[in-house]
Amino acid sequence: MSAFSSTIFACVLCGAVAAQAGGDVAALERMTFAMGTSLRLEVQAGSRAAAVRASEAAMKAVEAAEQRLSSWRQDSELCRFLAAPVGEEFSASSQLCAELRRAQEWCQQTGGAFDPGIGALVTAYDLRGAGRWPGASQLAAARARSGVARLHVRERALVRNLDVGLDAGAFGKGAALDAAARALRSAGAQSASLDFGGQLLYVGDVG
């Protein structure tokens, strides 16, 4: 059992609902915790077994995304990359490289309004602690170490040109939701809704 699976709490409610165009539809509701928040999944499929399979596929997709992108777990692939020496090539999964490349594209397209390379600023403001207001020199130093564009992203390798820290809070849950949606469709879910700490995604016709 993985560290993720051993620490989550999940509840499942399942039952048949009224017949729709294609016949009876089984509805299932499930809740778990990942990436420092809760995930609520509601899925509908042609049978209870199909709904369970689809929900399991979605949960496994979220688990894989957490193992890649969580900034709350020191054993995640992202945190291991950030712990690697500056300037040293880090062998990474193609999924993580693609997600960070996409984050760089979003940063460029928004003119820097979206930029997850703010780890130094998170520390400067102590956003995961009691909070503080940094002085001008501290703030300038943090800004000098910020920016996702400072990462060199290859097909299966990453390099930090400076001691840049990343916070995946702005895109990690979205990446997990996208992966869960793909898994649900592949597993045969007719429809589903996901609420991941307030970030919502709908699959199919959820009425």
Describe the protein:
There is one protein chain. The chain is an alpha+beta fold. It is built from seven helices and eight strands; from the N terminus they run αβββααβαααββαββ. It has a five-stranded antiparallel beta sheet with strand order 1-2-3-7-8, with helices on one face. Helix 2 (48-69) packs antiparallel against helix 7. The longest helix is centred in the N-terminal third of the chain and has 22 residues, at 48-69. The chain is elongated, with a radius of gyration of 20 Å. The model is unreliable at 1-22 (pLDDT under 50).
Number of strands: 8
Morphology: elongated
Question: Roughly what percent helix?
Answer: 25-40%
Give the neighbour order of strands across the main sheet.
1-2-3-7-8
Beta-strand percentage range? 25-35%
Q: What structural category do the secondary elements indicate?
A: alpha+beta
Biggest sheet: strands, sense, closure? 5 strands, antiparallel
Mean pLDDT figure: 87
> What is the H/E order?
HEEEHHEHHHEEHEE
* Count, helices: 7
Taking Cα atoms only, what radius of gyration do you get, to the nearest Å? Answer: 20 Å
Query: Which consecutive residue ranges, at least 5 long each, have pLDDT under 50?
Result: 1-22
What's the topology here?
Blueprint: H1 3-7, E1 11-20, E2 23-34, E3 37-45, H2 48-69, H3 77-83, E4 90-91, H4 94-109, H5 119-124, H6 136-144, E5 151-153, E6 157-160, H7 172-186, E7 191-196, E8 199-204
Antiparallel strand pairs: 1-2, 2-3, 3-7, 4-6, 5-6, 7-8
